[in-house]
Amino acid sequence: MYQTLDSLKIGDIAYIEEIRSEGSIRRRLLDIGLTPGCKVKCVLKSPSGDPSAYLIRGAFIAIRKEDATAIIIKGVEQNG
Amino acid sequence: MDRMKKKIALAGNPNVGKSTVFNELTGMHQHTGNWPGKTVSNASGICKFRYTDYMIYDLPGTYSLIAHSQEEEVARDFLCFEEQDAVIVVCDAVCLERNLNLVLQTLEITSHVIVCVNLLDEAKKKKIHINLKKLSEKLGVPVVGTSARSKKGLDKLMASVDDVVYQRIKSNPNHLNYQPFLEEAITTVEATLKNFYPIQKTRWLAMQLLDDDIVLKEAVLDQLGQENFNVLEEVIEEARLCIYHNGIQKNHIKDVFVSEIMRVSETICNEVVTYENQEYMEKNIKIDKIITSRKVGIPLMILLLMVVFWITIVGANYPSELLSNWLFGFEDPFFQFLNFLHAPEWLSNMLVFGMYRVLAWVVAVMLPPMAIFFPLFTLLEDLGYLPRVAFNMDHAFKRCSACGKQALTMTMGFGCNAAGVTGCRIIDSPRERFIAILTNNFVPCNGRFPTLIAVLTMFFIGFSSSIGASIISVVLLTIIILLGIAMTLIVSKLLSKTILRGVPSSFTLELPPYRKPQIVKVIVRSIFDRTLFVLGRAISVAAPAGILIWVLANIQIDHVSILTMCSDFLNPFAQTIGLDGVILMAFILGFPANEIVIPLIMMGYMASGTITEYTNLLALKTLLVENGWNWLTALCVMTMCLFHFPCSTTCLTIKKETGSWKWVGLSILIPTIIGLTICFLLTTFTHYFGIV
């Protein structure tokens, strides 16, 4: 069973395994440095719980739930 | 001796203080921050250094040179197809790793690169240390540390630029090495490209073409012509096939490039960046947790909006009165001066009672609130609060199949709808961008605030100057704004179910770290760049409009002025929507600038055909009530003010941004129909139940 980025709770840390999204969002994610092996930390959830903000290579990036479900992660460290 | 002239491009990620660097280097006052459109058209300025005039081109902020938004295309095309003597890449010291992505990509295009590691002061505060010397060794190009906001390191930056341009320093970038089969593919495509392009920059071009960048392909097709392009395309296809045989999916070629670039960035950063305090972001996160929390997030947004309005209304009251007394005091001298010049009486009347009075009104009513509102807003922007608004609001927009960044374009609309429409360029998906453009007019701009506030004060609050009254007016104003926002969401949803059908596209939004705003600078900049700009535009349309309305009011056919004839003609229809002919006429004539609606109404009511002495709102209310206004009229005027066609400038901007009059037509029709419908229903109901 794969774990995806949207499953992270605030404070959790994980590493990118694979990006399954296609098209423009794939490019966008690559541009902000989200490549396999990259460390991500979930830092914020918006008032409605979606989108969430992640710490990615030193910057806070908000990603919607739909887009986060296409990002496979591994090595989750729960800190929440 | 003639000074040498050289071209320098200034590139960088968004939010790295690139515009600050640009302003400091060129002495220009370009507004810093994410007011896009400001940098989309390549702002340029001259920086004199030693014996050279450096023409510096400020490119739009981009994460990469692989273009997928308009802004990125501008940056990419400039670097790829224009000749420049050097490129400065501005980086954020706080998140250097991500920024190096752009540096390494730029190095693939040209070796004449100077890396400017900006925001060193911020990094220092966060206890991040960067070994600039080592970074320079690793990259093979000069690296200069700066803190542009406090003007530190900029001389050194220009010295390095000078050294690179005159080759006193030989840049020797370490090219990235991809897997051999990729390098082979790049070399093959590059070899063909070199036949067509005299430039040195073929490597990056080859990489992008391998990645099947459609926009770039079209650009290349334009430049080479069909025949040459076919030759090139054949080579590209063969190379792509070769890559495919090495186990890389055709649409994932870019992944391999980017992964390699990021891997190198990571390695370099591990060596040059030391974090003395790993938890440097904790404070930021703590603040953000409150600002985006379920309980506080949305109420805080509304509260901040109210505070901004309150300060604006209360603060603008007194200066507005002072200014109007002062400006109207010039009327008599102006009139006498014209008499002294033996100007014909009709001309003096037209200039003084037509043009000057409307002008004076617009300045007196608009300048003080804008001079308060814009700086306050710029402060919030400078602080980094606005992206949090987009973050909080995104869910609501997603449910309407729109983009959360639309919230940002709406906040720009508060200042000026034309600026808001231009700002929609930050939205990547064309469908969502069009939704944002068509609905921007639902947030009232600065030209409409004075009308809303004046009508509110006269008919719903009263004239007491107590704090209580000012708070009520703010609450009512906020309710009106929230109505506008609700309408934005409803119309966005309707549009995405009908003519702009589609599902919400993907969305990434950067939340930049909070920065202490530079208060004095913010005030100066926002007054010069925004306030005076918007005021200047209003004045330039108010003057001719003043003359026109005077002419309409004073030229009589059969003892009836044209203005009266027109308003009589409109009156029957206007009555059904709770207005009267004069008001409707004023809205129509206010097309060039919404600010002049109230003065036009006043002029229409005056028998003399000119604006009366504007003493205070009480006098105005008396005039309005004498002409049949009641609370329903006031309500309908406010509704029409919020929901009617955009001003002429906004319409032209919409044409420019969408490229079609069809969208302009829609953006005129949608709010107007909504406004007319609401007013009609309000009037019908109140009359039916006999409330008025």
Can I get a quick summary?
The complex is a heterodimer of chains A (80) and B (692). Chain A has helices at residues 23-31, 65-68, and strands spanning 3-4, 13-19, 39-45, 52-56, 59-63, 71-77. Chain A is an alpha+beta fold.
Give your account of this protein's structure.
The complex is a heterodimer of chains A (80) and B (692). Chain A has helices spanning 23-31, 65-68, and strands spanning 3-4, 13-19, 39-45, 52-56, 59-63, 71-77. With 80 residues, chain A is an alpha+beta fold. Chain A has one domain (3-77): Ferrous iron transport protein A (FeoA) (SH3 type barrels), CATH 2.30.30.90. Chain A has a 6-stranded antiparallel β-sheet with strand order 1-6-2-3-4-5. The model of chain A has no long low-confidence stretch (mean pLDDT 90). With 692 residues, chain B is an alpha/beta fold. Chain B has 3 domains: 4-165, Rossmann fold, CATH 3.40.50; 180-275, Helix Hairpins (Orthogonal Bundle), CATH 1.10.287; 297-688, no CATH class. In chain B, 64% of the residues lie in helices and 8% in strands. Chain B contains 29 helices and 11 strands. In chain B, strands 2-3-1-4-5-7 form a 6-stranded mixed β-sheet, sandwiched between helices. Chain B has a two-stranded antiparallel ribbon with strand order 6-8. Chain B has a two-stranded antiparallel ribbon with strand order 10-11. In chain B, a hairpin with a 2-residue loop joins β10 (556-557) and β11 (560-561). In chain B, α23 (562-576) packs across α24 (581-589), α24 (581-589) crosses α25 and α28 crosses α29. The termini of chain B are far apart. The model of chain B is unreliable at 31-40 (pLDDT under 50). Chain A binds chain B through residues 10, 19, 21-33, 35-36, 38, 43-51, 53, 55-64, 66-67, and chain B through 63-64, 66, 68, 94-98, 101, 251, 254-255, 258-259, 262-263, 265, 281, 284-285, 288-289, 292-294, 297-298, 391-392, 394-396, 398, 404, 428-429, 504-513. β5 (59-63) of chain A pairs antiparallel with β9 (508-511) of chain B, so a sheet runs across the interface.
